[in-house]
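Structure tokens please, single chain.
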Amino acid sequence: MATEKNESTLLLTFLHNMGYVNEDRAVEVGELASALALDTEQVVEILRKLESDGYVASIRQREGVVSFYLTGKGVIRVCSIYT
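Here you go.
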């Protein structure tokens, strides 16, 4: 459980720090997994949980590729980590 929370926090802060904060800047799962050195399926699972909590949103890009970005609620969550 603690590991899942740490990975969720890592993913949220990465999205924030890299500026993936709107549809135009959304990032693909494979790129996230590679950058964070995590398994793709693990990243998808974390993203789906974060999406259900309202911290990230997904969009279907070209050729059906799903990308994710940090929502306003997610930005607030990340900022609360630093305060």
